[in-house]
Amino acid sequence: MKDTTTSFQPSPARPAPTRQVAAISWLRSNLFGSWFDTIVTLFITALLLSFVPNLIQWLFLSATYAGDDEVCRQNGGACWPFIVEKFQVLMIGVYPQDLSWRPGLAGLALLVLAGLTYTDRIRGVTLIAAWAILPIFALMMIGGAFGMQEVDQSVWGGLMLSIMLALVGVIVSIPLGILLALGRHYGSPAIKVLCVTFIELLRGVPLITILFMASVMMPLFLPPELVINNLLRIQIGMILFSSAYMAEVVRGGLQAIPKGQSEASLSLGVSSLYTVTFVIVPQALRHVLPPLIGRCIALFKDTSLVIIVGLLDFLGMIKGAALDTDWLGFQAEAYVFAAFVYWLICYSLSLYGRQLEQRGPNAHT
Amino acid sequence: MTPKLESSIAEGETIIEMQDVNKWYGDFHVLKDIDLTVAKGERIVICGPSGSGKSTLIRCINHLEEHQDGKITVNGTLLDKNMKNITSIRREVGMVFQQFNLFPHMTILDNLCFAPVWARNMPRAEAEETAIRYLTRVGIAEQKDKYPGQLSGGQQQRVAIARSLCMNPSIMLFDEPTSALDPEMIKEVLDVMIELAETGMTMLCVTHEMSFARSVADRVIFMDEGEIVEENAPAAFFDNPKVDRTQKFLSQILPH
Predict the structure, then answer these.
(1) Could B101 and A283 be called an inter-chain contact, meaning their C-beta atoms sit closer than 8 Å?
(2) Over the stretch B197-216, which tens digit does the pLDDT of each residue have?
(3) pTM, entire model
């Protein structure tokens, strides 16, 4: 830069105000700001004091960590050996014990892939392909393929079944939902009517109804040569139900994309198919990431409804374990454990969702 | 797909021809009997009050808007509803928008490579090479790994111009390219457009930058209420407007 005789000298910026928060003043401003705040704070504290110590006492302090039901009954607290004893049944149900390494391997593959996805090691086409192949691999491992001993779907159960239903449900219903949303948003009038009818029909019916239809009524209508097994029918029911919701979520994203985006792409001579695939859909999905993750979590929790049509998923196995005559009276432990496992999985999903939102172009602007 | 046929139209021959083009939005007659012939290498500025149909006119040329009546021939091809030939015409006709319309989820480099790769089947490496060349030409090669949201308006518009040029078009359409820019950024975009004009590109610009029209345009077209009211060489157009409506318009937009 060349020298100038007079130059503008901005005065140095003032330091930003620092927040000095002492514990007392934080308490005063956040918990005892007004007489109303004070009453609410005192009331909630009393409420917490009334049960949290007992809860901790039961969960940890007087809990039994090793031993049998006799020891548990003497100690009076939570009986964790019960969960340890039932662990395998809760995870894979009545799946043959000597073959349990197969679902174990599938579970390991799921964990590894989830880890790679969460740490952003794989992306793009590889990511999509890996998640598309995973359920196929899991099905082959659990059901038996390549000369491995076949295991009938009637003995699939436990957490394995819940995760399978949710995973296949999510992986198939998201693309299906995208197609439905595109059909509703861009399709010709005939396609639009079809998509709207499908979406509104499935959204207007509770999931339990769909599961009953899939399990009980479909075999009555289908020709005998088209009989497919119960699990697959229920899986299809869940996929269709979920895709209707996914479609509405994605449609919200499509509406947020300005018209200029498709015009810019089309004016470059890019075909409509590629314009939708690479310009419109990726942006739409990014807009609706939070509700999309929300739908995935909801679908995972909804899998617990399959108990009604006779599948023994994780919650079904919990219920079964609680009825074991050797361990009568410990059902509270079983349900606490179930809640913990559901929470762990759902919370990991929302953590991943939050991390996804922070990635990508939005993070830089 | 083969690389594009180097347009067989020679310098000075007709590249765009519009005959009796009419268009309606519902009952609103937005284009009225438009007759326009553009020669290859010609630079045309279209101006007129808002709502006069300027944007619609140039958007008909790459078929972002459909005309209902009349004939439009671009690069020797008659525009009709045949989608396949429309895609191939659009590859030859670049367009720059008022709102830039860069793809916000792609880096600058990806924005430029997208169309050559997916519409011309160009290998990625070659597309990147072309992209860098045009980014250098518009002076922002060092920003190639950023996202559009990180650039200023002027930079974004220059990227948008480079993105169109990557398809190696024979015609460039500009739809008010500087209207959404802060005043201090208008010049950097106009400079790129002037440089482009000097290379002999056929250009149709909807703009109110009268200095640009005066120095670059071969012809200025004035539109009002869907009609071409007056067309003339810039000097004659600005100094001796023949029609009252043109005079009135010029007196409103030119500095006193």
Answers:
(1) no
(2) 999 999 999 998 988 999 89
(3) 0.85
